[in-house]
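Notebook entry, structure prediction.
Reason for the run: the old model in the group folder had no record of what sequence produced it. Starting over properly, with the input documented here first.
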Amino acid sequence: MHDDFILQTTGLTKEFKGFAAVQDVNLKVQRGHIHALIGPNGAGKTTVFNLLTKFLQPTHGRILFNDIDITREQPAQIARRGVVRSFQISATFPHLSVLENVRVALQRQTGTSFHFWRSERSLSRLNDRAVELLESVDLGAYVDAVTMELPYGRKRALEIATTLALEPELMLLDEPTQGMGHEDVDRVVELIRKVSAGRTILMVEHNLSVVETLSDVITVLQRGSVLAEGPYDVVSKDPRVLEAYVGVAA
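New structure, fully documented this time:
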């Protein structure tokens, strides 16, 4: 049976003034999988994400999403195709309520963002969907809370809800558990597992226990190139990976 890859890159390269931040990266992300991108600081993980979401244009190489070449497309086109990125920088409006934040994302999805004169009925339909999304990330009790007053881990859950409002086929999660304590990490791991049903996730993550818990496949980057790839139990025993992370040969 042919492997069904939702996202593929061939020879993906990004040079900045002669320095290759990403060099000849060939990624294959299988549909329905959680695929982790890991590596030491400066390995090129964020640059790869920026290339995939078109915040940067590659110097060389191709990006295919659902077998369509999206290499030259703009960020908005990529998002409309169902490639949606979240995290690292909080993507919520701090002074709006939790419900209003999700509603803004839903309005973006339905194309009604500037139709402030829309009938109350169409807004209440959005409210129903917003509440549904908030309940799916365990924020049902926080509907009326002001976003800036949410605990850190709950803000991350809200970001997942706003990302889900855009109906992603492929979710790119950028450091989803960064700066979290154990309890929040566990909650967000469960959320990612829950929302991964029926979609594909590509995530950059520093916390290796999170990677071990969630990932089907791991790609290890070092100095902009792929160092190793495979399931966690294989990759974590690879002497090159141990050397890259710990600085000692196994």
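Summary: The radius of gyration is 19 Å.
The old model has been moved to the deprecated folder.
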